[in-house]
């Protein structure tokens, strides 16, 4: 466990981090911390390490670019005197290039993005125990999609660990979720970055199978494409290419090898049930009533929510059938 009692972790970023948190800084009870991964992490820490009092703070603001975050970094991060800092920023730097092309000054180009990150990391130098630098993401499987290609440039900047280590004076490493020794399951799971399939009606199934095998299990292929299409799923191919990878990619390979050990991961969770979004919205309504002191009998109120939520899920299941 890397965190200690009374440590403070500040999560800085955009809407991915924010998700309804109190702005500019949110923490504590109710909705102050928001509904993002920050809330998930706090819940995990409290559940698995109840003996530790770890202060979790959300400094994410929806719509922020790296330029915006840098401008408020002193007030919303440094002034909070954190022990650990997580930075997840970049999607809006790219997005403004596509949703506001007529206003180029709204966007943040790669050179400025890199400079902004370096300034933030330098500002943290010698003041924190560690930094978590998260790559921004855009969920588009087509690597040739213009916005996906542009986003990959920004992700590559984040992966320059050596430069950030020098700027932050902290050793940045890939790490798994914190898990107590007696945990029954791991919060980590493998998820493929791309999938191969053969159409049932294909007239060239054998040729398609050979093609897929070439891309997943052939050394000649990895000599050509390297890890441009992600790390190989084959442990044999991973071992083959690792010695020729750069330092950063070798760390990724070592991390995947670590996760491949027995008990380090769990099967990927199934997708959310149909109408789960409707149930989540309903929960927000019920929770708001509690916050505003409009509920006298909490047990009855909770049961009423469960009954209504189950009715929504049942109706959705029947519709799907």
Notes on the structure:
The protein has a four-stranded parallel beta sheet. α5 (91-99) runs antiparallel to α7 and α9 (205-217) crosses α10. It has helices spanning 15-18, 37-48, 66-71, 73-76, 91-99, 110-123, 146-158, 161-168, 205-217, 219-225, 235-241, 247-259, 276-291, 298-320, and strands at residues 8-13, 55-60, 84-88, 130-134. It contains 14 helices and four strands. The chain starts with 7 loop residues before the first strand and ends with a helix. It is globular and about 70 Å long. The model has no long low-confidence stretch (mean pLDDT 84). Helix content is 46%, strand content 7%. It has 321 residues and is an alpha/beta fold.
What is shown here, in short?
The chain has 321 residues and is of the alpha/beta class. 46% of the residues lie in helices and 7% in strands.
Identify the quaternary structure here.
single chain
Q: How many helical elements?
A: 14
Structure classification: alpha/beta
Average pLDDT rating = 84
Low-pLDDT stretches: none
Task: Give the overall shape, derived from the CA principal axes.
Answer: globular
> Main β-sheet: number of strands, strand sense, barrel status?
4 strands, parallel
The number of strands is 4
Rg over C-alpha atoms, rounded to the nearest angstrom: 23 Å
**Secondary structure: helix percent:** 40-55%
What's the arrangement of strands in the largest beta sheet? 2-1-3-4
SSE order, one letter for each helix or strand: EHHEHHEHHEHHHHHHHH
Q: What percent of residues are in strands? A: 5-15%
Distance between the termini: 46 Å
């Amino acid at each position: 466990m890397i965190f200690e009692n009374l440590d403070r972790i500040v999560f800085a970023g955009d809407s991915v981090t924010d998700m309804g948190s109190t702005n500019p800084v949110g923490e504590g009870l109710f909705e102050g911390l928001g509904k993002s991964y920050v809330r998930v992490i706090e819940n995990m820490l409290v559940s698995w390490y109840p003996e530790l009092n770890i202060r979790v703070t959300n400094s994410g603001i929806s719509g922020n670019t790296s330029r915006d975050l840098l401008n408020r970094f002193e007030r919303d991060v440094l002034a909070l005197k954190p022990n650990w800092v997580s930075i997840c920023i970049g999607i809006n730097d790219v997005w403004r290039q596509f949703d506001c092309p007529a206003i180029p000054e709204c966007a943040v180009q790669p050179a400025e993005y890199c400079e902004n990150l370096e300034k933030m990391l330098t500002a943290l130098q010698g003041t924190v125990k560690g930094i978590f630098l998260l790559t921004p993401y855009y969920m588009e499987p087509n690597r040739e999609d213009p916005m996906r290609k542009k986003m990959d440039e920004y992700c590559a900047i984040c992966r320059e660990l050596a430069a950030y280590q020098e700027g932050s004076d902290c050793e940045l490493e890939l790490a798994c979720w914190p898990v107590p020794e007696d945990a029954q399951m791991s919060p980590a799971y493998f998820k493929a970055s791309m999938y191969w399939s053969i159409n049932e009606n294909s007239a060239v199934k054998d040729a398609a199978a050979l093609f897929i095998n070439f891309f997943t299990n052939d050394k000649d292929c990895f000599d050509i494409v390297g890890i441009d299409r992600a790390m190989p799923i084959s442990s044999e191919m991973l071992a083959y290419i690792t010695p020729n990878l750069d330092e950063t990619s070798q760390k990724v390979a070592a991390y995947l090898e670590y996760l491949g050990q027995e008990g380090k991961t769990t099967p990927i969770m199934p997708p959310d049930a149909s109408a789960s979004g409707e149930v989540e919205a309903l929960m927000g309504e019920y929770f708001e009533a509690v916050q505003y002191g409009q509920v006298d009998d909490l047990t009855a109120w909770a049961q009423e929510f469960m009954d209504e939520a189950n009715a929504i899920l049942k109706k959705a299941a029947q519709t799907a059938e």
